[in-house]
Design brief:
About 35% of the residues lie in helices and about 20% in strands. With about 240 residues, it is of the alpha+beta class. The chain has three domains: about 50 residues, no CATH class; about 50 residues; about 110 residues, Immunoglobulin-like (Sandwich). Helix 1 packs across helix 3. One of its GO terms (cellular component) is plasma membrane. InterPro entries: Anti-sigma-K/W_factor, RskA_C.
Length: about 240
């Protein structure tokens, strides 16, 4: 899913700020926020847009008829059993307290949606074209990518830099490369648009990221089988 699309970012951000995005979908979105500037900008815009709604409305004094109707509906049965039934003004403290709680809740909502998200800046890695892969693509094509990685290592957005035509019989596969040992696959990535990768330990034992050219469907061996088109090292 391309989270850089403005219409998708707007829809998810609005649901997040309004609170209608819940459960696993909300937690997943919060992870994506750390790695995707477009989503963060959309959330900030929606927070600013909805902040005025949290301002308490001017107080309106109900008419005696309204209070009497409330009294009759809520306290008529209890009043009939009591020796001295309580009138509506005796309940005024209760309703003022409820109105006060509503005002506090509205102000609290305003405070929440007006606060900026405490998001750490993402880690940006440039995967430069590998000169050793000469011949894998036309000489005019430079297979370069930029990766935006969340600070907690749970989300990565990889986007190709420029046009990168790939034959239908081929695919691009992203790898996490350790300082020593075999690389591990992070899945197939797009040659035309941003790809989002969600895993819990993208940074664990990772010294670099690499993109290889594989048969359609990806490597069948669990290791790169085609040329390594681009590599980007993590700065430590």
């Amino acid at each position: 899913m391309d989270y850089a699309r403005p219409e998708l970012a707007e829809r998810l951000a609005s649901e997040y700020v309004l609170g209608t995005l819940r459960g696993p979908a909300r937690r997943r979105f919060e992870v994506l926020l750390q790695a995707h500037p477009t989503l963060r900008a959309s959330v900030a815009a929606w927070q600013e847009r909805l902040a005025p709604l949290a301002v308490a409305a001017p107080a309106v004094e109900p008419s005696p008829q309204v209070w009497h109707a409330i009294e009759q509906r809520l306290f008529a049965a209890a009043g009939a059993a009591a020796a001295a039934p309580r009138r509506w003004w005796q309940q005024l403290g209760l309703w003022q307290g409820a109105a006060g709680l509503a005002t506090v809740a509205a102000l609290a909502l305003g405070l929440v949606i007006s606060q900026p998200l405490p998001v750490e800046p993402p880690i940006v890695i440039v995967l430069n074209a590998n000169p050793d892969a000469a011949g894998a693509l036309p000489s005019s094509i430079k297979a370069s990518f930029v990766a935006s990685l969340s600070a907690d290592g749970r989300a990565l957005v990889l986007k190709p830099i420029g046009e990168l035509p790939i034959e239908a019989s081929k695919a691009l596969e992203l790898w996490a490369v350790p300082a020593s040992g075999a690389p591990r696959s992070l899945g197939l990535v797009s040659a035309q648009q941003a790809t989002t990768v969600l895993q819990t330990k993208l940074l664990k034992d990772t010294a670099a990221f690499a993109v290889s050219l594989e048969p359609a469907g990806g490597s069948k061996t669990g290791a790169p089988t085609g040329p390594i088109l681009s590599v980007g090292k993590l700065q430590t």
